[in-house]
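Key result, reporting period 2: structure in, sequence out.
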């Protein structure tokens, strides 16, 4: 197996390997996570947005990040990042950060205004995410409001986003 790791846009054929990675990294509790709850409402079910990314070593998928098209309140055009998963054998090597950065750049180039996630501010702040003011944006299910983060890809995008996040 090659030691070289490459990244690319996720393809439909990657879905089984992504699902297996999520099961290994997050276990059965993954379905209670907000990102899964939002995607439950999508009509296109298992399709991937063009911003989803994977990292591959040889023929093994070692990391993935999913971006889901969402509405905030009644306004479409935002993305929900998550889950981000890295095979524990490859954790701490920057593959997750690389995938997120690549996906954000593609989303910005495509004209997306805002990317949301539920996560650790110290990790994601390095990638341009900041805490959303409490109550401004809500997600389905129990979510600690201090963990709702957003990256404005267009200046001022966060200040105008308000309401419940739902599948677009």
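The corresponding designed sequence is given below.
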């Amino acid at each position: 197996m090659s030691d070289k790791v490459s990244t690319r846009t996720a393809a439909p054929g990657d879905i089984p390997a992504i699902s297996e990675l999520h099961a290994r990294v997050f276990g059965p509790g993954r379905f209670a996570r907000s990102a899964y709850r939002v995607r439950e409402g999508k009509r296109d079910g298992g399709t991937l947005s063009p911003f989803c990314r994977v990292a591959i070593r040889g023929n093994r998928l070692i990391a993935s990040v999913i971006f889901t098209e969402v509405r905030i309140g009644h306004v479409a055009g935002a993305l929900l990042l998550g889950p981000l998963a890295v095979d524990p054998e490859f954790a701490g090597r920057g593959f997750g950060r690389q995938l997120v950065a690549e996906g954000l750049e593609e989303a910005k180039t495509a004209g997306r205004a805002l990317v949301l996630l539920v996560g650790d501010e110290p990790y994601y702040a390095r990638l341009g995410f900041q805490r959303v003011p409490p109550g401004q944006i809500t997600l389905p299910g129990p979510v600690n409001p201090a963990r709702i983060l957003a990256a404005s890809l267009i200046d001022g995008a966060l200040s105008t986003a308000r309401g419940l996040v739902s599948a677009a």
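The beta strands are 5-9, 53-57, 60-72, 75-86, 114-118, 130-131, 137-138, 148-152, 163-167. The helical segments are 15-26, 34-40, 95-109, 121-125, 157-160. This case is discussed further under Risks and Mitigation.
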